[in-house]
Specification:
mainly alpha; three-stranded antiparallel sheet
């Protein structure tokens, strides 16, 4: 494979061109997923759990163009996420970390991130050892899910020494449950606290083998390792072992570039968003490992990103817009957006490409 400058630069241009087109289409709303046939977006008013990825894409575009108007649009989208600081959901990490982390020298974004970190820390339950999933998205409040960890680990860690302790505890409690609670098989991504019995009980959905859940956990472990400079409370040896287990079980190093959305249905839908998330996690792990492992992680990440660009990214000249990362699977069981462009898939592909090109420091995102 040739160096990434040519193909990665071209692909990033396509993705950021798609961002401009999406911005014109959605206005002050937030894109969620787009139809693979015509590129029309299904949107939300407040952003749901994905709003931060739209703001993050706008910040990537602003960095790329340097245009004041693009920076203003990114800042405005980030400001519209402010209500999520008070929402009772651990997914505020996805919203408010990725929506602010790329906003260099933006005072409003920095203030929002600081406020979100303090509010999330206030929700940490020392008895349970985590920030509960919360009730804002429906269902029981006292739950633990794989998608409650990415974003929240670096966000809470921003809140000083107490925040770093809570962030590490949150990560390790989820590893206790998702990796260890279900035995030696694939990670169990969802748990509920049974107050009557005083113990955690595994939920049936999402089921073990949920590719995006495994990619979320791998990303969170990589973020924990990036912050494990002093050892305790991060327990870097345990995090390194967790990364190896996730890489092996999820086949992120030697499996197909785009994994099945559900391992139990290998002939079913695949999920390019899980592949993009895992590629970014691998690039982060490459910064932390010895030379041999670092080279293997970086090479696999580049190969996955190249595959996504080569096979799943739309090009100019067709009936649909250019720059769409197709074949993302929002929810396989319900049949929701199973071959679609997903806003978080676009974000992680763009982030990975920008990192390959040396335009983003992944230790800060």
């Amino acid at each position: 494979m040739t160096g990434p400058t040519g193909w990665a630069g071209e692909a990033l241009e396509l993705l950021l061109g798609r961002v401009a087109e999406t911005a014109a289409q959605v206005g002050s709303r937030f894109p969620l997923y787009a139809d693979p046939g015509d590129g029309r977006w299904t949107t939300t008013g407040r952003g749901a759990w994905t709003g931060g990825f739209w703001a993050g894409l706008l910040w990537l575009r602003a960095r790329h163009t340097g245009a004041a108007a693009d920076r203003s649009a990114a800042s405005a989208a980030t400001a519209r996420l402010a209500a999520w600081t008070e929402a009772d959901t651990a997914t505020r990490g996805l919203v408010l970390w990725y929506g602010t982390a790329l906003a260099a020298e933006d005072d409003g974004a920095a203030a929002l991130r600081e406020r979100a970190a303090r509010t999330a820390l206030a929700c940490w339950d020392p008895g349970l050892g985590l920030v509960p999933w919360g009730a804002a998205l429906g269902g029981p409040r006292l739950r633990a899910r794989a998608d409650a960890v990415p974003g929240l680990v670096p966000l809470v860690a921003c809140a000083g020494p107490e925040g770093r302790t809570a962030a590490a505890a949150h990560l390790h409690r989820h590893l206790d449950l998702c990796l260890c609670g279900g035995g030696p098989g694939r990670p169990r991504p969802a748990w509920r606290w049974d107050e009557a019995c005083g113990r955690w009980a595994a939920e049936t959905e999402p089921a073990p083998g949920w590719a995006r859940g495994e990619a979320w956990l791998l990303l969170a472990v990589a973020d924990g390792l990036l912050r494990a400079d002093g050892g305790t409370p991060w327990r870097p040896d345990r995090l390194a072992a967790a990364a190896e287990r996730l890489l092996h079980q999820g086949e992120f190093l030697d499996g197909p570039p785009v994994p099945p959305a559900e391992a139990g249905d290998p002939g079913g839908f695949r999920d390019t968003s899980a592949a993009a998330i895992a590629a970014v996690a691998l690039l982060k792990l490459a910064r932390l490992s010895g030379a041999g492992r670092a080279a293997a992680y970086a090479a696999r990440a580049e190969a996955v990103l190249h595959h996504l660009v080569d096979v799943h990214l739309t090009r100019p000249g067709g009936a649909r817009p250019a720059g769409m990362l197709l074949d993302g699977c929002y929810e396989a069981r319900s049949g929701t957006a199973v071959r679609h462009e997903l806003v978080w898939g676009d974000f992680f592909l763009a982030l990975g490409l920008a990192a390959l090109l040396g335009r983003v420091d992944l230790t800060r995102v």
